[in-house]
Queue: 2 jobs
Job 1
Amino acid sequence: MNVFVTGATGFVGHHVARALAAEGARLRLLIRKSSNLANLEGIQGETCVGDLTDPESIRPALAGCDAVVHVAADYRLWIRDPGSMYRANVQGTRDLLDAARQAGVPRVVYTSSVATMHFRADGIVINEDTPVSLADMVGHYKRSKFLAEQQAIAAAQRGQHLVILNPTTPIGPNDRKPTPTGRIFVDFLNRRFPAYMDTGLNLVDVSEVARAHVLALTKGQPGHRYILGGENLTLKQILDKMSAITGIPSPTVKIPFAVAATYAFFEEWITGRIRGKEPRATLEEVRMGRKKMYASSAHAQAELGFRILPVYPAMRAAIEWFCSHGYAPAVRP
């Protein structure tokens, strides 16, 4: 099977490409001229230079493909020019789906995000059928992913064989950027996590997310969305698990949302706007933290054969990778 993969130089995309290659797929990997290719090491595949914002640069690589796996996305919780995020996530997705349809590619797997779901402050576990609208989206990243997912849903309704995957919060090795989730780990490892908020996340092993992409190519039902999750945990539970792995003390001070929002406001203003650097905390993160992002993966378990794995090994692998690659001092697990 010839598979065109976007985002293979990134965290989740790297694991997806590796899982596809392990199943014998012949890969065409989209890269940009400026891409860091470190995550492609050891993955057999043809690299194709192009950009999601330039659909003409992608069309030649789609010829003769049996499937497209679209993992790439602009995943940032602070950005100076939000327009570039919408061009990559929304317009880029729409143009790629159109190009795949015109090229006659028979199958598409689109990697969305659980960020497109409607979560609640009381921690009620949601699923793919929980009502949601654009008004429920907090910040540019969530809005752009929601709008991109709507493009994918519309394409499926027009008859394109398209499956949508919604990973929760993937963790594991090779998070080179790192992602906003990876920065939680890096900050903790560098002892820059003095306090925590009363929030919660669903953590999932990135290797199982990658396996689900392979399964979705043959088992996914067109037009269906599948949440790919693991364990629902409070932020304090996550920090305590990291403490158990590393021996670094877990923070004991819980700060109110108002205090966190005030800190994030000044961090965005001083670090982001005045110094031109990415702030350590953003108002978008704090606003997202008011809701516990707990989700069920029952639909993916039933139809794809997705597995909910214990999160501890993935956390340990992520910590060992960050320490061995210079993101934090070495620890003795």
Job 2
Amino acid sequence: MSSRPIPPTSAWPRMGLLVALFHLTSLLPIAATELARPTNATLPNLVEPIASFGAVVSGDQLYVYSGHKGKAHEHTKQNLSQHFRRLALTGSDATWQALPMGPALQSVALVAHGGYVYRVGGMLARNEPGEKEDLLSVADFARFDPAKNTWQALQSLPGGRSSHDAVVVGDTLYVIGGWQLGGDTRWYNTSLSLRLDDPQAKWSELPPQPFERRALAVVEHRGVIYALGGMTSGDEPTTEVHGFDIAKQTWFAAPALPGKPMQGFGCAAISHDGRLLATTMNGEIHELNADRSAWNTIGKMNEPRFFHRLVSHGKTVWAIAGANQRQGHLATLESLTLEPRTAAGVQP
């Protein structure tokens, strides 16, 4: 496979968009895990279909930043979304609000801390349509202040990084995986951390990791940062999962996601209500079991998607936009409410 970025829709054709809710079917007995139940909650579509973007919930607001749009395999200035928008998750005004935009970026990470929204890395396309691709991983790190409605540039990453992911644990930001484009391609085998509560803090490297992956999902759950799926530096999709024990500062191999290797490419994950959930390209929803020994498949999305984001607010988990193997880029949001565990022996 080529070392150039594989666009969110890979080689699959585009079709029309569907507005859908999670329709979940139990694939395991109730003794193994409870069912995932659909919810009637709805949110308005995004302004445009996008994939490989940044999204985060901060307070009662959902923020979505830029991403890839247009046709598969095309990387141009025009195929990067020019939007940074916010949606109130409470109240009666469920409309997307335009916010001040920074650079248009693909595979950017968005995180929240202390009432601020942080933007980490991402990929620029500097070429016009018809020109040779000119792609650059940026080292940008910036903070959006909702009260002032402004961006502030912060200490840059040590190097350009895109197709990565990021998570905040306590007061510390972790940046995991990805690669550097622009000149010679570099795959990262070391991840980063930064204290957000210390204005004088510097970027630190985590211990070397036993993998090099991009297009992965990163999430923290019960003191462990999980790096799920993606594409290896050998240009192979994978369902591999690795965990970083924050207290021990060590990496370990965790159970792989179910399914063929391609299912891990562009997956998404979230820690919600004491449960670690992941969604894969075929639409399946998986949960890591209590002893971290295996993933249970607990349902299936009505609208399979990858290069999407999972966010939560209250008791609801939302799948945001992404791409579909048959339909291309999506603008829809799908919701999932998880029923409380009731079966014996499944409490974490």
